[in-house]
Write a structure and sequence with these properties.
By secondary structure, the protein is of the alpha/beta class. Among the domains are: 89 residues, formyl-coa transferase, domain 3, CATH 3.30.1540; 95 residues, formyl-coa transferase, domain 3, CATH 3.30.1540. It contains 33 helices and 24 strands. Helix 8 runs parallel beside helix 23.
Length: 804
Amino acid sequence: MSNGLEALNVVEVGGGFVAAMTAKMLADLGAAVVKIEPPEGDAARRRGPFRAGQSDPEASGSYLYLNGNKRGLTLDLTQIGEQAELDALVRQADLLVHDFQPAEMVRRGLDYERFKTLNSRLVMVSVTPFGTTGPYRDYAASDLTLYHGGGLGWLCPGKGTPLSRPPIAPFGQHAYAQGALHAAVAALASCYSAIDSGVGEHVDVSIQEVVTFFLGRTFSSHTYAGVTESRRSPSPYEPQSLYRCQDGYLYIICAEQAQWERLIEVMGNPDWAYEERFATRDKRGQQTEPLKELISQWTAQHTVEELFHTCQNARVGAAPVLTQAQLERHEHLRERQYFQPIEHPVVGTLQMPGAPYKLKDPWWQLHRPAPTLGEANHEREQLFNPIRPAVEAVEPWSQAAPPLAGVRILDLGWVWAAPYCTMMLGFLGAEVIKVESSTRLDITRRTKPFPPNMKPGPNRSGYFGYLNQAKKSIGINLSEPQGKALVHRLAARCDAMISNYGTGVLERLGLGPKDMHKTHPDLIIAMISAFGQTGPLRQYMGYGPLIAPLAGVADQTGYEDGVPQDVGMPYGDPNGGVYAAIALTAALVARQHHGAGGQVIDLSMWEAMLCTGYEGWMNHVMGNPPYHPMANHDPIWAPHNVYRCQGEDNWVALCATEERHWQSLCQAMGQPQLAEDARFVNAAARKANEGELDRLLNAWCIDRDPWEITQSLQAHAVPVFPSMSMAALLADPHLQARQCFTYWNHPEVGPRTLMGAPWRLTHRPNGIGSYAPLLGEHTDEVLETLLQIDAQERAELRAAGVID
């Protein structure tokens, strides 16, 4: 399996960011990617960050990061003759990925029904702001409007933010990045199916739905408990916040009562910590501000580094808020050789973000810099790998199976990261068997929301219900030798195994990669952890909320007072989960191409987040001053903000990322003279006068309804969308038309609504499969059908406490 994805031929046709990042995920694993740009180059070339005083389109940091390992062509796909060039590439390709909206797809000849007559195995992935169907399909969008339009902005920065302060987005292109990452999972899964079946697929990915898919517990709080959470809501875990130290900020989280008790000891057992108001997790959640003030009095007496190690050595979740400069010299990242040098013909040597996962067979490589504009225009015949013999379709297009049908995953994960990964694989048709036990309940089975008219129970949490759709549950006690033996036997019947236990736990259980590969050499094993399986911090504990501070995202997120802020959700968990899903599906495709062979995936959630938040790092290596919190503003684009509208806590995200957006905005506002105003005449002038621009737009928005503003400006193709709450998302006609929700009549909690997959398959089933399983619901079924363990032996195992 040392060859990775080298047999995969990929065509990328994009607008600059989303398709580029999707294709990057495959190129870095060895796929042959041909990037098609318009003659003027794509938008990422103009984005930057650039070195001070420069604006060379060959030297844009965003472009350089997103396009390594690719070959570059220039084609004007609005011209029929140039579309014929695209057709020639399509005949050789396994995958085509693009990020153009429906009308632009037509202009550029991106027609899957036509493409499949040229190449029946072709998979085409359309990653668009709102999908290719539904009322908003043609709405203009930007990363900012999609982040707020998908509901994540509503939660940020979180924890008691006053109504006077707007919802914000984390610094960076996070909506675009997540759209790309989720598209890569669906693309690889569809390629896996097409290679054997000869039947391709058109995958329709909505970035808004991807953002909404991230909401997890907060969305289910609305549908399970009737609670619409926002940036003002308390956390289900306390303490969980950033705390000021002598020299910076430290994030502390106590997800379990035992961690809170250990933190009390670390703080020196202060009397206040034993007050009744702080006795339980729920009580602490109602005392967010007093608790934060008291803990801050303690943290202010110490340095960040001192408390980070003190807390972690006591098994209390903690992480420093790191800057880009601190990341560059961090000993853990250096020992894991995270940053990778690349030599570019224009920029010279740059230290680039490295692999989001380490692999036993090291397919991930940064071996080629981003292409200069049109660098392969004269090599078109040699760009792709030799074409594989065509596979005759073995099933009718209308009866194609789900992409991962026949794949079986053994899921030893818990909480969010690994379950998020396997949920996606289950949505794509894999059989996911979740190993859990009543002796060690998943945290999400014990965490709100629960229906308010029911006693909490392990089968009643909306948090668990969301993350574990499309899975089976088998109850196995891993503390028993017989339980471990059952896992070994099950692994022999599976394609992959995944875990996000702490580093070293699998090995202590006798279930680590070396143990498993002795008897199951073809097994793909994915291990997710905060810090990775190697390095000086490998034994430190990690939860999703700790990862954005570690990766420099929190340092750049917040209001313009310069104080870093929490991003409002446990971002590290689903971000790590989607990267794990990419690596795992890539391993399936590689095994399919190259024959038998196992793989070990070591995914550090910290390193994965560094890849997602690339823009801050690229600004650093370009030698520029660091980005500081700027709320919803952008380093170069203006206007780029969220504006208060009519009604309590109503806001609309609005921006102009192209000159035409600004011209159209002035017309739509009925103030065409602003387009000629010297203060706003170009992007640089608007950025220099951003404060005055915001005052004008605030005055225009304040007495208008956010949907009135949206419809008015969208008629002029201006990127704009309301900042959406959970209730607004559930009622949204576009999301309903796209059928993005799942509806379950759960045996214990009754009818409930949850988020479904953020993609639509054209030729394969889109059904989710099942509600989240009851604890041990499938124990008998799995043991009987896969291991042929009869009823008498199962009864003996139950009596011995081995199975539930």
